[in-house]
Amino acid sequence: MNDTPVIGVLALQGDVREHLIALASADAVARPVRRPEELAEVDGLVLPGGESTTMSKLAALFGMLEPLRARVAAGMPVYGTCAGMILLADKILDPRSGQETVGGIDMIVRRNAFGRQNESFEAAVEVAGVPGGPVDGVFIRAPWVESVGARAEVVAVHGGHIVAVRQGNALATSFHPELTGDHRVHALFTDMVRSVG
Questions:
Q1: CB of 125 closer than 8 Å to CB of 161
Q2: What digits encode the pLDDT tens for the residues 40-94?
Q3: Other beta carbons within 10 Å of 73
Q4: Residues annotated catalytic, as ranges
Q5: Are the CB atoms for 71 and 44 separated by under 8 Å?
Q6: How far apart are alpha carbons 123 and 169 in whole angstroms?
């Protein structure tokens, strides 16, 4: 078991820097990942928020989509926030034209379910597996999970909607914990990576 895992953040778009800081605070070696050879060097990967359609197109453009699918299918720990959650879904309700996913979690997600940018909000969210009370979730044009399959475990609900899911080594949240200064969700993910290492 590696006490200091190397965790990448997919650095094609989105709030990469904030994730790198959160992972470093959780005692991981954090580095940006843009190319397949960089992906091959990490023990786990964060798929950040951003615009999910743009991210899937950039991943394809950079030759990252197939290597990502292969690593996730092979069990590499992966954590997706907001758009990253959409990328980890096996199915998207109303996908944009040409939008693809990496897959890995048996769930159906609805894009922008919580409304537009100006309807963004913060909320306290109880996340199973995260000790110390609720985490502060920042929801920005956030998706929610319409339904999960038998292999996926719901780990958080807000307002009657599923907002965090775990399946094996894959974790996904609708919200952005990296924007709050509370790094407990990143600590949970770092522990997931350690347990595989």
A1: no
A2: 999 999 999 988 888 999 999 999 999 999 999 999 999 999 999 999 999 998 7
A3: 11
A4: 82, 176, 178
A5: no
A6: 26
